[in-house]
## 1
Amino acid sequence: MTQTHIFQAEEIVAGYDNKMVIQEVSLVIPSNKISVIIGANACGKSTLLKTLSRLTKPVSGNITLDGKLISKIPSKQLARVVGLLPQSPIVPEGISVADLVGRGRFPHQSLLSGWTKKDYEAVAEAMRIMNITELANHNIDELSGGQRQRVWIAMALAQQTDILFLDEPTTFLDITYQVEILDLLTDLNRKHGTTIVMVLHDINLSARYADYIFALRQGKLIVEGEPLKVITSTLVKDIFGLDCMVIKDPVSGSPFAIPKGRYHVNNEKAP
Amino acid sequence: MKNESVGFIRAGRRQRRRRWIFVTGSLAALSFILCCAMLLLGNTIYPVMDVIRALSGEQVQGASFAVNTIRLPRMLAGLFAGFAFGIAGNTFQTMLRNPLANPNVIGITSGSSVAAVFCIVILHTSGAVVSIASVIAGLATVILIYVLSRGKSFSIGRLILIGIGIQAMLDALVSYLLLIGAEQDLPAAFRWLTGSLNGSQMDELPPLVLSVFIFAPIIIVLGKHLSILELGEQSATSLGVNTDKTRVLLIFSSVCMISIATATTGPIAFVAFLSGPIAKRLVGAGFSNVIPAGLVGANLVLAADLIGQFAFVARYPVGIITGILGAPYLIFLLIRMNRKGEL
């Protein structure tokens, strides 16, 4: 089991140039749980995740890990506790899957050493969790999109951090792979206690897989809590500006939002 | 099950490492052979024993002068400059993830050339002054390209295009300085236009050798960081690399090495551009490319110089031969990148 950490943000403001995308957001990440940040396009959810995972410096406000400012923690040391899967990672040409996953071991290695026994075990474990062991010696260029995404997550897993941020890990994947990736991440959380924080596009998959929801609108955190409590038709209207009906997902029991468009609505005529 | 998958991964990695060791070893052996050839071949071919005796300081009629004053400095200049060009070019290409983004194409070697030509041909200075001036000019060129290509966000394409423009401008400046300074001196002109080992002298070498001994180890040690930077800014940051500091250190080391090499041999065409991609082809992508790229650079320069000296009726400077190799590759690369939509 991984350690419990207190990761929190206090009144952070972040953005680019003169446009502040994140406005005074304060939050505490629930330890050892899966949290999902939801919101409409351009509401700042990606920026929030980038700020939390130190890719973007906040203009003001503090982000702390176990009471210490993350900007004050040596970067390699922080990288042993907090990992990130960026939205569009860059693939070096011609690299094998195992070597790429092994790059996740960087924060655990010294300058000149090769792979230690621990490194091999961490890489093997990460690849086993992501079901890609048999691809180990394949070239990454040969893989499909879904396989590649599993390789990237395996790289983040090889880093063996207690907290893992993922920026839209299911984008560009078929629904089958989306569910597969989310199941694998849930395995990771249930078996190892890894704290997971991710941005997802699909509100229903968010409601199903999240233990905790952070809902963002125009850079402000408007609601947070368990999906059952917070995902309502009012909230969906609030954050997406979409009329919908929220029912109980017959498979999982989680909230399920059904959008109401202008057409195809029973007993109603289009305007 | 657990040990099985560890063993599977270990076996694959061992195989890739064996390939790395084999290729790197072969490249080093080839460098050694080429170095020997540089010492043995010339207008007069002396017996091997005479060459060895001359090298060890004995006075051998004829051989001593030819070997110690002409061939040895020529060989050392080629070896060290090639190594410097290879490592520095590869560092830029890997860091910026684009083979076009290298000192030969974006004008850094031209910047150093301008300073070196100005010092040597116009001011008639030599030694440390030339090295320092060309390092400053190389760094200034990097800063100029960076400042000019900085827009709302960083773009590699813009950086390369601006670099090519700056390169054209600086090359014109080199030609102009040669025109007013070395009107009658064709060898000097060749040296600064395409790079040449002709007329390398022992007393010019210490800055080059010293810079390689100082900066190459820094880049070799940072090889692991370099392979993480290759994953992009975001992954590198989250893996705990201090990206700004690492990049500055890598660029500074590369520019110092390549500027001093340029001040010594001239901008030997395309060596910095070719070495990284050739080395990567040979060793694969899993292990550090730094040392193989340096060795490929040294081999390219030495082999091209031997070809230039002996393959034709006339003698050509090394840069003409590497230019003949490099230009088609540049065109091939542009076509391929254009097809892939990377330009």
Note: The two ends of chain A are 56 Å apart (CA to CA).
## 2
Amino acid sequence: MSLLIIGIGNEFRSDDAVGLEIADSLSECNCENCTVQRSSGEGIALINMWEDFDHVILIDAVKSESDAGTIHEIDIPKNNLEPDLFQTSSHLFALPEAVRLAKEVDKLPKTMQVYGIEGKNFEYGVELTPEIESAKFKLIQILKADIEKFNSYTS
Amino acid sequence: MSKSKTKIINVDYLARVEGEGSLYLKIKNDKVEDIKFKIFEPPRFFEAFLRERHYSEAPDITARICGICPIAYQMGAVHAMENALGVSLDDDLRDLRRLIYCGEWIESHVLHVYMLHAPDFLGYQDAIQMAKDHPDVVNDGLRLKKIGNEIVTLLGGREIHPINVKVGGFYKLPSKSDFHSLLENLRWARTAAHNMIKLTASLEFPKFEQDYEFVALRHPDEYPFNEGRLVSNRGLDIDVTDFEKHFEEEQVEHSTSLHCKLKERGKYKVGPLARYSLNFDKFSPEVQKAAKDAGLKEECYNPFKSILVRSVETLHAVNEAIRIIENYKEPKKPGIEINPKESVGYGCTEAPRGICYHRYNLDSNGLITDANIVPPTSQNQGSIESDLRELIPLIINLPDDEITWKCEQAIRNYDPCISCSCHFLKVTIDRG
């Protein structure tokens, strides 16, 4: 049994890259029993990625009224994903739709955790704003702890 | 004296299309007075990004134009660069280029048919609602798309924005054994693609034949992906290098995407219907029979049947992938050595949505001095507006929400990729 972590984003849209950068950092750690993937956030591809896993964590940049750098944590399937939170995606069928569709066709993993980092700048660019950069390091630590906890439960 | 009656329908955000676009309709006394298929996605200036970059970077940079059809851009770029630098690939490498394109066609067509367009015909708001009643259909779509992804990932190095394609070949080649499980999956996909054709053939299509000028690639030996002459059903028959002599792009006020037109005759249509109608004879007998059994003729002028034609092309892509994998012999080298020179190169390939043209000018060090990319959606905007102009009189008496839905469906016939089409904008400053 292993854990899948998917970092979602667009590396040319400033803060939208944060999910991908976290995925890259975790890949370098070679964490045990943990597969790390990058995704543009296209919904069907996400379902295809997670359908063979029982436990999945997703990381994406989000946009709401919160302060930049706020880390949102959403437990699926207990909660729904509000599409407005993920309005940064240019995809016609993105993460919230993928979760709803996967529920209908029984392709949701047993556990699914979504971490959203509140972004500030989604214009063209390759730099994270400082608040998002700080949140990135904080979330990497949270995720490493999650991986450890997962491995202690499954060992 | 009768009062004139004006109705305005504004769809601010078109649903189930890639990128951001809108539609404006003005109807006066039951006649269409104005139609604007508006694209307001920000321009993306990809041609400008390419200037001063090395020719070898073009495939990876252009792949970023689209998350749905990156291979189309990579193929356009590598073929144009190879044309500029006088390189031609041997048959084994050429086949691998066709194979990765099969993967993209499968992914793109399946996503559109099952998740975006079928709900229109079956009366559902979206694929999620459709899945409640037809989970098996949606599951088939998910599995088929995954097989397309597998092909792109195996040859492209990764699923999104693949990085293994280079000018002159590939960076790394798969071994025969790498294809083992994929081949098994493709054999399932062949049956699934036949079922996809049967499913889409059972949909109800409005009678809506249009008088299009179709433009597509045509190759003497095969259904086109990467090579061929540009032909039309009105006598166009040109080498790809002459594209800019016959086609021109112009800016329209309501779109951040340029409109491309034939200089002599104006609007034209690219994509599955054009490819199918100009190349039916290049399908295998199995695919031809499946198309005819589904009620299609050798040419198709009804844009609503594009969902059926995409299904036929999916079967072709699956069969072509099986053929290539079964005959695969690992090439001796993954790529060809290239020496840069001052040159101009042209490439045109068949993206899932239609022809995608590239031209690059290189200096003696292989740096790009000028680039021009014409994606399919910018070529189809004129046809989209023309379809709507013809459609509205037929549905004018329906309630506004149904008119809106039918118009959106008519736009989705094109599977427009708006994000792709907005990478250039001409700015004119009038200082009086």
Note: The longest strand of chain B covers residues 31-39.
